[in-house]
Amino acid sequence: MTERTLLTGLLRRLLSPTAFTACFLLVLVIVMALLAPWLGTSDPTQINPASRLAPIGAEHWLGSDAFGRDIYSRVIYGARVSIIVGLGAASLSLLFGLFIGILAGYFRVFDAIIMRIMDGIMAIPSILLAISLVALTGGSLLTVLVAIVIPEVPRVVRLVRGVILSIRHEPYVEAAVTLGTRTPRIIFRHIIPNTWAPLIVQGTYIFASAILIESTLSFLGAGLPPEIPSWGNMMADGRMFFQLYPGLVLYPGIFLALTLLSVNILGDILRDELDPKMVKK
């Protein structure tokens, strides 16, 4: 399949109603994150006891929480936290996973040691590992990112290793070795380009998983500090008032669900178009 054919098929899929809606929602969330200081109507961390649990109105478009903080502004700023966590976790996981995967797949002397370490990390449930790391080091954005990245790296390593093992004996790679091409050139010219497609697809799933894990950790009180406006913190703060004021949980929950759904839909589309096993003959 040529690059032009691949791009044409991808654009055609992205213009379908479902994919277009997913793209629109994801772009909307990203715009919210970028323009949060201008879209927000007030300081999302400002406590105002006089406006405690205020209903929807001109002053508070989505009401206020138990501390008088504006829900609309906190939802907007929560998008910023989610996008930072998602992009940061996906980028770091792919970067470290690609490097370690190349060591394991191309330099076979490291394979057994690296893969046993990766298997050991994968044997621990990711959410439990994340909670343990956050509990040991304290809640902060950097700590949450590290706690999310560590369980995701082994999955990327296994993916990259599998791709390399499938192509390292291809004629064009063996020809490059026979001609005396230096190893770094072989890796950057022949190995890494073949990993882009599966890594892009894997990155979308890590992006969605990172947002969900961060929200789960924050909801459980083991993530970001409570004063930081994240969707998980908002749902945790509003759960005690859910029966009387369901919007405290529903508003951030809806944005979280739509964001995850959009990313997963785009990930499925990319997988269908970029994975040779999924392409219809």
Describe, in plain words, how this protein is organized in 3D.
The chain has helices spanning 3-14, 17-34, 36-39, 71-106, 111-122, 126-137, 141-167, 171-178, 183-191, 196-219, 231-238, 247-274. The protein has a single domain (3-274), classed as MetI-like (MetI-like fold). The protein has 281 residues and is mostly helical. The mean pLDDT is 85. The chain is elongated and about 75 Å long. Helix 4 packs antiparallel against helix 5 and helix 4 (71-106) packs parallel to helix 12. It comes from Paenalcaligenes hominis. Pfam families: BPD_transp_1 (PF00528), OppC_N (PF12911). One of its GO terms (biological process) is transmembrane transport. Residues 79-267 form the ABC transmembrane type-1 domain. This is Peptide ABC transporter permease.
* SSE order: HHHHHHHHHHHH
Number of helices: 12
Q: First CA to last CA: what distance?
A: 10 Å
- What average pLDDT do the residues reach? 85
β-strand number: 0
Biggest sheet architecture: none
In terms of DSSP E residues, the strand content is under 5%
Features:
12 helices; mainly alpha; MetI-like; 70% helix; transmembrane helix; 281 residues; MetI-like fold
Task: Give the SSE map.
Layout: H1 3-14, H2 17-34, H3 36-39, H4 71-106, H5 111-122, H6 126-137, H7 141-167, H8 171-178, H9 183-191, H10 196-219, H11 231-238, H12 247-274
Helix pairs in contact: 1-12, 2-4, 2-12, 4-5, 4-7, 4-10, 4-12, 5-7, 6-7, 7-10, 8-9, 10-11, 10-12, 11-12
Question: What's the short version?
Answer:
The chain is an all-alpha fold and 281 residues long.
